[in-house]
Design a protein that fits this description.
Elements (H helix, E strand, L loop, with lengths): L2 H10 L2 E2 L6 E6 L7 H18 L3 E5 L10 H7 L4 E4 L9 H8 L7 H14 L1 H10 L1 E3 L9 E4 L6 H4 L3 E4 L2 H9 L3 E4 L5 H6 L5 E4 L3 H4 L8 E3 L10 E6 H6 L2 H36 L3 E2 L4 H26 L4 H21 L4 H11 L12
Parallel strand pairs: 2-3, 2-4, 7-8, 7-9, 10-12
Antiparallel strand pairs: 1-3, 4-11, 5-11, 6-9, 6-10
Helix pairs in contact: 2-12, 4-13, 5-14, 5-15, 12-15, 13-14
Subcellular location: Periplasm
Main location: periplasm
Protein name: TRAP-type C4-dicarboxylate transport system, substrate-binding protein
Length: 372
Amino acid sequence: MSKLSLSLLLAAGIAVSAGADARELRIASGAPPPHPATSHLYNGLAKYLPEESGGALTAIFLGPEVVSLGQMKDALQTGLIDVGNLLPLYFPAELPNFALAGELSLSARDPYAVAAALTEYTVNCESCQKELSDFGMVYLGSGSSDPYRLLTKEPVVTADDLKGVRLRSGGAPYSRWAEHFGAVPVAISVLETFESMSQGTIDGTMASIGDLLAFRLVELVKHVTPVPLGTYFSTCNFCVAKGTWSELSVDERAALLRAANRANFDFTWRWGYDFPAIAEKAARDAGITFHEPDPALVEAARAFAIEDRKTAARIAKERFGMEDAEERVAEFVALVEKWEKISEETGRDRDAMTQKVWEEVWSKVDLASYGM
């Protein structure tokens, strides 16, 4: 790390360290401070790591001015950071299994359930583990946003209202959704949403309502419509550099994993449930109008999400050569349904879901060989 980068980190007061004998991991979320990926995911890891390791592991946080989301892959592969928040949809050709999960975004409904489903799927998927290993990384869980909504300048209530509307798209399934309903998808980074809306390049976005606060869109958005758009869950919340993982003892790996599992569900609770409620209140206080969508649009959106699973499988076959794509889609959908039941049974309780994922998934992993 350069002296300048370290000085910036120390000046910002975001280093977390402990005893001189502790191993300090360099961690990066790539997100601004208000976003749950920083406030709860990576701040959570920094908090839990010394607790779970008895002080043997600590963390120093590198902010987005040092490592952005787009730089996360290079930062992990070059050793600049030890643990990073990698968004696999940035690299679909190199992480096709994650790309397939991302293609199924429209089918997600329950944030806890889909985060748990992708975690179980990825941990137990041999080809998923191989592609991550080839990528030089070790997977420690996923999270999810709340169900996406339409955040727009003009009201959108019916399918006709969508025609010609320029919407920021966070990935291929959202672009397909927009095109299906006659809107115009615009593929830009979430970090560019504010500027693009303020300049009139786009008319709105398909996104978490939390983006109103995380990216200051509350200053621009005038209307919110909760059309079922799925959630954003194709994440590697904690991707560990393989070199770092190989240097950790089994006990240290277990401590890191326990800390990651706790932070994963802090993050999904915040991004999927708590932050959206806060953002909705702020939006209403700011005078933003909330609309009930036309039932015909809701039904059409749900039908499209189910039909789009076939498109996801076809893309996986054609682009990535997955001859068993239909079976993979079916397996993942079955896991989502399994975890939706568990989520409902737990009352969508964060601590209960954290424990359930530990019992169902991580407790069965051999940490001496996992990720190696």
